[in-house]
Amino acid sequence: MSRPQCSRCLRPTTHCLCALIPSLDSRTRVLLLQHASEVNHALNTARLAALGLTNAQLVVGEVFDDLPILLNPPGYQARLLFPAEDAQPLQAYAPGDQPVLLVVPDGTWRKARKLLHLNPLLMALPRVTLSAGAVSRYRLRKAPGPGALSTVEAIVQALQVLEAPTSFEPLLKPFEALIDGQIAAMGQEVFQRNHGDGQFG
After folding, report:
1. 21-186, what's its fold?
2. Domain locations in the chain?
3. pLDDT in tens, 67-104
4. For helices 172-186 and 45-52, what crossing angle results, to 10°?
5. What whole-number distance in Å separates Cα of residue 57 and Cα of residue 53?
6. DSSP states of 166-194 as a string?
7. Of 93, 84, 105, the residue nearest 31 (C-alpha)
8. What is the residue-wise DSSP string for 104-151?
């Protein structure tokens, strides 16, 4: 028998995060393309990001037929937040700059690459990247490499750069509560045994 679930944050109603989710405006529009396998993941950070930003959209799937429309909202320049040798570092908006449509694939690295492969329009987008050396607060997964962040953390860092000095830290409050809740559920001893080696993802 499944537990009652909040229809908004998709968490069990006893662990609903909605009270912690902010409502933040941003000049940047965020388009989250979530691999279908992530939807029911207990740590669905893309959904938290989409709920906390008024100028964000979450689309779930594998092949996105309406991508031409999604990638071309009037007045925005689309950029893909994904590593590549030719990816440009994000920079703060200068006066008169056209706002960015930040396209963020959500899934494991393998699933995210698959999304790009299956949607050639994504492959064709100019890529942007975050500055090196960011440390994730995601203490329940080992990072696949240095600077690997959860989806919500990557979005927060990107917006902090683009829209400095505006702070988007409140987006991380439900994420941190989610992590704390997962650790409490597994027990501190199990957490330390499995994740207490400092290699957090």
Report:
1. Alpha/beta knot (3.40.1280)
2. 21-186
3. 999 999 999 999 999 999 999 999 999 989 999 999 99
4. 150
5. 9
6. ---GGGHHHHHHHHHHHHHHH-HHHHHHH
7. 105
8. EEES-HHHHHHHHHH-HHHHTSPEEEPPTT-----TTS--SSTT---H
